[in-house]
Amino acid sequence: MVHGVAKHEPGYSTQLMQGLANKMGLNQISEITKNITLTDSLDTTKKLGNLRIRQLSNEDESHK
Questions:
Q1: Residue 16 is inside which H or E element, if any?
Q2: pTM for the complete prediction?
Q3: Residues 25/15, Cβ–Cβ less than 8 Å
Q4: Could you say which of 13, 38, 61, 63 is the most buried, measured as most Cβ atoms within 10 Å of its Cβ?
Q5: ∠ CA 27-17-51 to the nearest 5 degrees?
Q6: Where does 1-64 show beta strands of DSSP type E?
Q7: What is the average per-residue pLDDT within 11-30?
Q8: What are phi and psi of 33, to 5 degrees?
Q9: Rounded Cα–Cα distance for residues 12 and 60 (Å)
């Protein structure tokens, strides 16, 4: 799922993520969140935002 081309508060998408996970039968959410700072390729001192990656799976991890 990719979303959010605007300024948002951290955690705003949690409810959306949990709703999608429930509909897809993905009840295990990884404890580790990978955060990647996005920068302007022409000016790497200019921060554009943050990419947050969470992994979801079903109980036996046959679906992710």
A1: helix 14-23
A2: 0.59
A3: no
A4: 13
A5: 120
A6: 28-29, 34-39, 47-53, 56-57
A7: 85
A8: -115, 125
A9: 28
